[in-house]
């Protein structure tokens, strides 16, 4: 994306600046940054009051790098903050979840009072199965309300959930169960995707062959399929949960009690069990949800369109929204379950006010065409969010115009599994926005962009994003591997948290994320981000999605190889492929610079993506460099890479 084009947009649409109508009623006020900066730790202590404490903390931060303790002498129960407090304070009749099934017409309304009863019943059932404080429990579930009941019931008992995304294989599930020694599994017989029932329990059965210490499996019946059954180990949810008492006296736990483990991929093959603790995590999940999404619990209908199996689902479907007591939409299906207009049907039906999703999904919706959302009344929306990868300015603009009616602020939220909650994002009504920029650190958070030597870069420069002060929801480590925690995050720049992302500060000092640093290319000594080239390619009208990798090259060090999918409706469909490839190369050269011209462009019907929707650039780099392919188990469709490797072999390499 050329800066000139972004500038032109900014000229044309001053609404990127905080609109007065929005500012007047926004939760955050301009002074919030200064207030927090005066004494960030004290500011966070204030924010901790959003959480319900049985014993209010008197301590704030104890910091001995890399180990942080926040609010350590406070005592609380996470599920009380999410559920009991709302019932206790008279909000029990408010809807917590409008759950929408994959199949049209199937839905369920769950009030806070009902959520309380379901969580208590589930907690009582877990006690009957032998669950105790500190136990680890794997949750391997589709997007159904029982997944939330299970998570909250587990933490209510002081046990620790490890939610494993339902799309993972039996092997992946087994390695996660073993790594943190889970003794229990909560699952379902199957899940629905685009109307079809897909089994889930067989993967659990397969995984448990290598996990002899799992003593009980709790199974929700979601489909009509038959399942294998291990007597004594397996228990139907409807047999054991439904007959339990609908009340349960919660115990109080110290603030640093582990709350959950979430596995995430690192640079090695073995996933890291990132763990979070209670008081600090809840404080920041609740605070960021309140300010970044500007929530109005009485009137908002919030939709975080993410899966519970990822950190976004933990922080912004479960903990953050529930502590704020908002009404949410929880959706089981895919964006095109029942048709490509499904999302817009849901938004117009429930009058959703806030939508939070990932750039990859926005680009898919874009590919399907703006005519689809145009057929629906989306005027209830007042705020849009994005997360997961840098958003290309075209997708940002499309989202703003076609979904947000050029009216809704967009919050581009940067964070990670490890950070637990959002660290960088504009604040709606206060911070100006720019298409593609995360803008700045939130109040109470300190980040910097540093060079190789760890020195802060100035404006108009790029480098590595680091976090320079501890924050409440920071991970407390990698489960069972403190050395890896230290070496991965705290050794690269002494005293600072190394996020692994490249970033730049623009002329005004605003923050742009450039993708993982391992995706930064060096072409003839020029530093170029894969994202920049992708943005350029996606800016061409024929391109739907692009993934760019730096492949080693004898003359230039690295050279750019781009994998591109075309838009279905593009009028270039009939064009000669070689001509289109040349046009795309020239386009990149004209948007960024001739240095950025891809050496090779491979047109492919699909890109290899992880089940969380991230493009697997590592695999594409392997393909581009003719290496044998590594671990492909986290891909949605492992055959895609082989197909692309085949295309590589037949595609000509440009000479100039
Ligand atoms: C990585 C973390 C945070 C929940 C989902 C992903 C990338 C995340 C943004 C953003 C640019 C982003 C970073 C980060 N990322 N949000 N708004 N702009 N990049 O969690 O799987 O732990 O991945 O996602 O590269 O390091 P995750």
Tell me about this structure.
With 656 residues, this protein is α/β, with parallel strands linked by helices. It contains 21 helices and 31 strands. Among the domains are: 139 residues, Luciferase, Domain 3 (Luciferase, domain 3), CATH 2.30.38.10; 130 residues, ANL, C-terminal domain (GMP Synthetase, Chain A, domain 3). The strands form eight sheets. It has an eight-stranded mixed sheet with strand order 13-12-9-7-8-15-16-24, sandwiched between helices. A hairpin with a 5-residue loop joins strand 25 and strand 26. The two termini are 23 Å apart. The relative contact order is 0.10. Bound molecules: 5'-O-[(S)-butoxy(hydroxy)phosphoryl]adenosine. 5'-O-[(S)-butoxy(hydroxy)phosphoryl]adenosine (WT7) binds next to helix 12, strand 21, strand 25 and strand 26.
Please state the CA-atom Rg, rounded to the nearest Å.
Answer: 24 Å
- Termini Cα gap: 23 Å
Taking pLDDT < 50 over at least 5 consecutive residues as the criterion, the unreliable ranges are 652-656
Query: Would you state the CATH class of the domain at 1-38 and 418-518?
Result: Mainly Beta
Q: How many strands appear in the DSSP assignment?
A: 31
Bound compounds, each kind once, are: 5'-O-[(S)-butoxy(hydroxy)phosphoryl]adenosine
Q: Major sheet, described briefly?
A: 8 strands, mixed
Q: Give the second-level CATH assignment, the architecture of the domain at 1-38 and 418-518.
A: Roll
Mind telling me the CATH superfamily name of the domain at 1-38 and 418-518? Luciferase, Domain 3
| Strand order of the biggest β-sheet | 13-12-9-7-8-15-16-24
* Helical amount: 25-40%
Assign an overall shape. globular
Mean pLDDT: 90
Oligomer: single chain
CATH topology of the domain at 1-38 and 418-518: Luciferase, domain 3
How many separate helices?
21
Q: Roughly what fraction of the amino acids lie in strands? A: 15-25%
